[in-house]
Amino acid sequence: xxxxxxxxxxxxxxxxxxxxxxxxxxxxxxxxxxxxxxxxxxxxxxxxxxxxxxxxxxxxxxxxxxxxxxxxxxxxxxxxxxxxxxxxxxxxxxxxxxxxxxxxxxxxxxxxxxxxxxxxxxxxxxxxxxxxxxxxxxxxxxxxxxxxxxxxxxxxxxxxxxxxxxxxxxxxxxxxxxxxxxxxxxxxxxxxxxxxxxxxxxxxxxxxxxxxxxxxxxxxxxxxxxxxxxxxxxxxxxxxxxxxxxxxxxx
Length: 251
Ligand code: APR
Fold this sequence. Notes:
elongated; binds adenosine-5-diphosphoribose; 3-stranded antiparallel β-sheet; 35% helix; 6-stranded parallel β-sheet; 9 helices; alpha/beta; 251 residues; 18% strand
């Protein structure tokens, strides 16, 4: 079956679905100009993932912060990063009452910026910082992101980006909210993820076991494709999601 037939089939499946869940990874933001973590141009090809290890952040704060600031904050501040048509379709489907949640591994805030209200940020969000001493939260815009690790204006404690470092636990509301959404959906779309990182990568299996139809959009097969995916569409999510949307007739 060629992609246009698969796009038609995806639209048929989704038109009948009442509770769709989107499960997104870095590939969803690739067309917004944000590099993925793995594969061609991946962040981990250039930087050591250890710089995002929580123990390293506390023990080598200056070194860790220098890389985090370069990879995430300088990169973003030098470009106008905005949602792409794939993000916009997921927000449209939520507005139309058919998409119940987005579960995202991404920390770029783009689903919220696109307008989705129910977003489970499985790996947190780089748009916020939290004080590691008093717990106060700040937006990235409220603090000076200089070469020195950021400090809390209230207590002087070290601030940490509010995304999940390797070695940290998943935020409870995101974890349990994601499981609940996966258990209660009838269509689950895996978008732009290699499925390499646990425990996020176990969420699609929950949807599958609960009878949801699994649609996958990726540039290349992932760990899910020959295992739980019912319908695999190869290509860019920023192109495939709008193509599906034009054929949707909610019933
Ligand atoms: N459209 C669809 N898929 C794409 C696109 C695109 N335009 N561009 C890339 N992809 C796919 C790649 O083929 C790959 O399968 O997106 C996937 C990106 O995989 P990763 O870079 O491994 O990203 P992700 O799966 O989100 O990583 C999970 O790893 O390092 C941690 O915390 C980090 O959240 C991240 C987690």
